[in-house]
Amino acid sequence: MLKDTLSGLAGRPRALDGVLEQAGQIILGKDHEIRLAVACLLADGHLLIEDLPGMGKTTLAHTLARLLGLQFSRIQFTSDLLPADITGVSVFERDKSTFRFLPGPVFAQLVLADEINRATPKTQSALLEAMEEGQVTAEGQTRMLPTPFFVIATQNPAHQIGTFPLPESQLDRFLMRLELGYPERGAERALLAAGGQRARVEQLTPVLGAEQLPDLQREAAATHAAGPLIDYVQALVEATRQNPAFQHGLSPRAGLALLAAARAWAWLAGRDMVLPDDVQAVLPAVARHRLRSAQGGGYAQAEDIAALIRSVAIP
Amino acid sequence: MSTPASEALDRHATPWLFAAALATTAPHAIHQPVWLTSLSAVLLGWAVWLWWKDERLPGRWIIVLLVAGGCAGILAEFRSLFGRDAGVAMLVMFMCMKLLELRSRRDAMVIVTLGYFLLLTHYFYSQSIPTGVWLLAAMWLVTATLVRLHGGPASATRDTLRYAGMLCLQAIPFMLVLYLLFPRISGPLWGLPTDAHAGKTGLSDTMSPGSIAQLAQSGEIAFRVRFEGSQPPKQKLYWRGPVMEQFDGTTWRRYEGRHPAAKLETLSPPIRYETTLEPHNQPWLLALDAPTALPDDAILTGSLTTISRKPINERQRFRLAASLDYRFNPSEEPPVLRRNLALPDDSNPRTRALAAQWRAGNAPEAVIAKALALFAADFTYTLRPPLLGRNGVDEFLFQSKRGFCEHYAAAFVTLMRAAGIPARVVGGYQGGEYNPLDQYLVVRQSDAHAWAEVWLDGKGWVRVDPTAAVSPDRIETGIADALGAGEPLPVFIQMRADWVRTLRYRWEAINNAWNQQVLGYDPDRQREVLARLGLVDTDWRSLAIALGSACGLLVAGLMAWALYQRPERDPVVRLWHKALRHLARRKVDCAPWETPHALLQRVRAEQPDLAEPFQRVVDAYLAARYGNTDNPLQPLRDAIAQLPR
User: Fold this and answer.
1) Exposure b/e, B318-328, CB count within 10 A at least 16 = b
2) Is residue A285 scored above 90 in pLDDT?
3) Number of structural domains in chain A
């Protein structure tokens, strides 16, 4: 991994090293994806995991919630899910003759929105509003969500039956989008031998408390990004706008997201400065769902992102 | 038909090509036949329409038919496919047809190349300031098109234009150096097609009623004169062209045979001047009467006309001198006198009768006075005289009594010959307009004039201008004052408001400066300029050396400027590049997008012995460049110093 190659610059122990290590024992052979997911949460961003059913999406979300000591709730999205099923409803209490608000599952520190693209756009947008605003407006009253507040949404590939694809404006609210992919041969052998990992998730003990996470986020966000590095981020963003492989380029908000993700990645590596390697490492996860391929119109191809990186000189 | 995607033309680049084609062909519409202009417009419009609708381009056989039809039309029109007019017409047509074939980048490059070539062809027709300005702008546009073709779809219009403008501006110093130092060739541009000078007219060598009146309706400039010292009075400025001695009843012609040499006696000090003739395809230099000093390549005929050895078909400058008072051939040879007494036998009986009546008992001077008095009495000076029949002079003298200078000159000479006084018609220009802004006298086609010359015993040939008797204003102030309102003179000559006149003076002064300084930069001028620069006695070899070294200096200057403009390199980056050069010597090259860590991985794989020291360089470099330290250079220097040689 990255840490091996860095001698004097890195290797500073981080409070989240334990999270990475333990999660790696649950989700086998997916160290890079786990690190990206943790970096995403560290950069205070929401995460979208897209893959076929059974690839470990839910397990990953569950594992992270346990290890980070976060209050966890899970919403299984279906086509008949209503916005109130997420945000909560008021019920009449006969003995007090008042309405009492029963908070929905969104009032949790880590929300796993499973198969988000199976719900109708109206329901999707109720969750997405909560993600953007950090608050929920139900029955005329605005209620703050807990902090920290993360959404890990999973999604089945768009071509599956009965899906409502997320519009671009809502995809933009996810800092990163990951694909887990099939495990490696050795990892899969180990997984089969262990007979599934779900049970082990329940036995995990939190590595740190939920109240520590905001401090770590602040620390990661303060990671030094020098002028040349910001130039590099800008050059990459500009290159997406001029590259004919994409229908349109990255927005300034996407540029900010890229830098924040790179900072978290650098912090996780135990460094106090961001390097071009960090930017290159997070770029596919940050950029692919924000770009449209000029051919076919789906997400940008991984090869196109690789070509994009090769087209921009490091300042 | 399919083209490889990499070579396919970007759809958004096409409007640039349309604009370039339009800018480079449009000015040719002024002189090309209407059918060709219409064909080009239709082809261009078709191409634009196909592009707009995203339709398929026409098939190959349609293009072949179009080319064949167009070439046949040009062959029919010009009787040739070569030469200036036909050649340019072909290029314009091909340019517009190529727009229907825009499939790949290669087609677009053909348009651009053809566009640059078409820019040049405009100079065959006009070298005026507006042409120059238009062609500069068109060159900018064609260059911008070229930039756009290489720029890709993302380049903004403004950036493209700015970049092309920069390129053009950088070319200007080279243009000036080439202009000043490229060996000049005197006379016409070499290699110019033979029909390049067609259509430039001026005073003709024959005169019939109406011929000069027609010329006088043109406001074009015939020549410009600058006097050394003060300017002589206007009424004395007679610019002599052809002398016409033979009359067939309607038309006066030059005598084609040999004249005895002119014997000239000057009576006043010579006036020196420089004249710049516009091309008129005739040999005469239109020298001021009477010429006393001639340029090298000119000769003086027996009838005192200064002629050049070649027709004037390029704008040319001559230095001359003239004496306004002179005596010319006081003893003339009898054959010449006989020729100047001849009249067609059976024409103009009333004129002959009148002359015979005058002749009886009167000296020649008295006959002349009588004739002038007759004109002064009740004749009208007009550009629109009635048509005259067989006995034109009779009709003019006794019935219409309206005419232009050629009518008066012809009638006067007829009268004189009938009265036994040798006389002939002289064509040329009279007067001119003095431009106070650049001290040049401008003589226009509207100043074209005809007067008479009579031979008096002892005095020789004496100029008599019968027009002066009819309309003294014509000679003293100019044609615009001599003619009433409603005469068909060019509008701007008639307008006499002060601001119009000032504006016209200014424009003509600018044009003249352009002609004299820029277009008139001939071998002599070049020698003068180079002498001022310290290069005396230049031949083509020294010019070539000067040209080469000046261009070399310019290139060096531009490169120095570009280097100076480059942002100063961060010392950290400079040290890093030093380290990369170390690696390059060990056959490890760093791609621009490769991060130092990625490079380090490769060094580990390819040059394991370098890995350890290079890792220290990478760490020091990354800390210096991306870290937050105060004095980052020293560790990096140390690490680089430890790299094995």
Assistant:
1) bebbbbbebbb
2) yes
3) 2
**Tokens linked to B545:** 């050396």
In this structure, the answer to whether residues A250 and A138 fall within a common structural domain is no
Closest chain B residue to A278 measured between Cα atoms?
B595
Residues 183 through 242 of chain A touching chain B, CB cutoff 8 Å: 224-226, 228-229, 241-242
Paired strand residues for B300 = B306
Which of A221, A248, A278 is the last residue before a domain boundary?
A221
**Residue B4: per-residue pLDDT:** 42
Place of tokens 């073709």: B149
Strand ranges of the sheet holding B291-293, from the earlier edge strand across to the other edge: B291-293, B316-322, B271-277, B221-227, B440-444, B433-435
Residues A122 and A266 placed together within one structural domain of the fold? no
Find the CATH number of the domain harbouring A103.
Answer: 3.40.50.300
- Chain length of chain A: 315
A151 and A230 together in one domain: no
Last residue of a domain, one of A203, A221, A239: A221
Q: Which residues of chain B have pLDDT under 50?
A: 1-6, 188, 190-191
Q: Which of B107, B122, B280, B405 is catalytic?
A: B405
Tell me, what's the pLDDT at B2? 38
Cα–Cα distances in angstroms (integers) from residue B561 to residues A262, B19, B170, B554, B565, in the given order = 39, 33, 11, 10, 6
Rg (CA), chain B: 37
The one catalytic residue in B28, B197, B280, B449 is B449
3-state SS assignment for residue B321: strand
**Residue B6's pLDDT is what?**
44
- Nearest CA-CA distance, residue B627 and chain A, Å: 6
The reported pLDDT for the residue numbered A38 is 92
Distance of CA B41 to the CA centre of its chain: 26
Best-predicted range by mean pLDDT (A50-59, A159-168, B13-22, B213-222): B13-22
**Active-site residue, selected from the candidate residues B28, B447, B465, B582:** B465
Tell me, yes or no, whether A169 and A292 share the same domain.
no
Shared domain for A106 and A139, answered yes or no, is yes
Pairing of strands A150-155, A46-50: parallel
Q: Which chain B residue has the Cα nearest residue A249?
A: B154
pLDDT at A27: 85
Residues in chain B closer than 8 A to A244 (CB atoms): 152-154
CATH number for the domain harbouring residue A282? 1.10.8.80
CB B209 within 8 A of CB B389: no
Q: What are phi and psi of B61, to 5 degrees?
A: -70, -30
Residue B426 CB neighbour total at 10 angstroms: 26
pLDDT reported for residue A281: 92
* Chain B residues with beta carbon closer than 8 angstroms to that of A275: 595-597, 622, 626
- Neighboring chain A residues of B594 at a CB cutoff of 8 Å: 314
Q: Do A226 and B627 touch (CB under 8 A)?
A: yes
| Range of the structural domain that residue A72 is part of | 2-221
Residue A310 sits in the same domain as residue A210? no
Both A11 and A143 in one domain: the answer is yes
Mean pLDDT for chain A overall = 85
Q: Over B430-455, what HEC string results?
A: ECCEEECCCCEEEEEHHHEEEEEEEE
Q: Give me the DSSP letters along B219-251.
A: --EEEEEEESSSPPPGGG-EEEEEEEEEE-SS-
**Subunit contact B615:A229, Cβ cutoff 8 A:** no
H or E segment to which residue B622 belongs: helix B608-626
Chain B residues within 8 A of A235 when measuring between CB atoms: none
Residue B273 tokens read as: 């001047």
Active site residue B405: yes
Verify that A214 and A297 share a domain, yes or no.
no
User: Which residue of chain A has the CA closest to B151?
Assistant: A242
pTM of the model: 0.54
Residue B574, CA distances (Å) to B282, B568, B571, B640 in order: 71, 10, 5, 12
- Spatial separation of the C-alpha atoms in residues B504 and B491, rounded to whole Å: 12
Cα separation, A235 vs A279, in Å, equals 12
